[in-house]
Amino acid sequence: MIILQPQVLVPESELDALLFRKLERYARTCYKSEDKMKEASDPNFLKSKLTMGHESIIEHEKATVMFIVDRGISHEIVRHRIAAYSQESTRYCRYSQNKFGNEISVIEPYFFKGRDESYQLWKEACLGAEKNYMIMLESGCSAQEARSILPNSLKTELVVTYNLREWRHFFRLRADIAAHPQMRQAAIPLLLYFQSKMPSLFDDIEYDRDFPVEHYAQIVLTDDIFNPVV
């Protein structure tokens, strides 16, 4: 069994300066103020429109990332309906195969660290599920049948595309203190990345500032097909 930490893969081309300029152009159509556009985009223009509640103007552009999280967290992410999703399928992925290392991969719950008894119980439960899953496959069960006993902690890869308005909605819900701890673990560092790239669109979104930074999911910059940038 492979124990992993959560990650979010973000193509370097997402949220670039051109995206911001296009949004300003689209928005200025509403006011016929295209003549006021300058060589560099005006972040205050879009920010003022969002403050007014005119968020539909940022629905024209989208951003795509890949979450590497556990199945439980992926179930929460896909509740966002204005979206496109592509997810690793336990119906077709057969983890007894060599390309998976002949074992399952799980995401380590950070909140069990330092709690030896709870951590051991979690680990034993995952190992037991892995063992029985492999036995079921060997006995003739299909992957979609054997997956019935796989744990909630099973690692999954989920490609997510939202328009920028939906990303604002996602962060408001998922980086908030009321969100599941492992959801905040992935959502907060991703929000901070979005804020660094497009502050005028995301700086107003609050998040759980008390969440321990040492447990943030790693943000990995990639090329456009999610190969890590070296």
Task: Throw out a few tags for this protein.
230 residues, 8 helices, Gyrase A, domain 2, 7 strands, 39% helix, two-stranded parallel ribbon
Describe the protein's architecture and organization.
With 230 residues, this protein is an alpha/beta fold. The protein has a single domain, classed as Gyrase A, domain 2 (2-Layer Sandwich). 39% of the residues lie in helices and 17% in strands. The chain has helices at residues 17-31, 43-51, 71-77, 116-138, 143-146, 164-174, 181-197, 199-202, and strands at 2-4, 7-11, 62-70, 84-87, 105-107, 155-163, 218-222. The chain has a 5-stranded mixed beta sheet. A two-stranded parallel sheet has the order 1-5. Helix 1 packs across helix 2. The longest helix is centred in the middle third of the chain and has 23 residues, at 116-138.
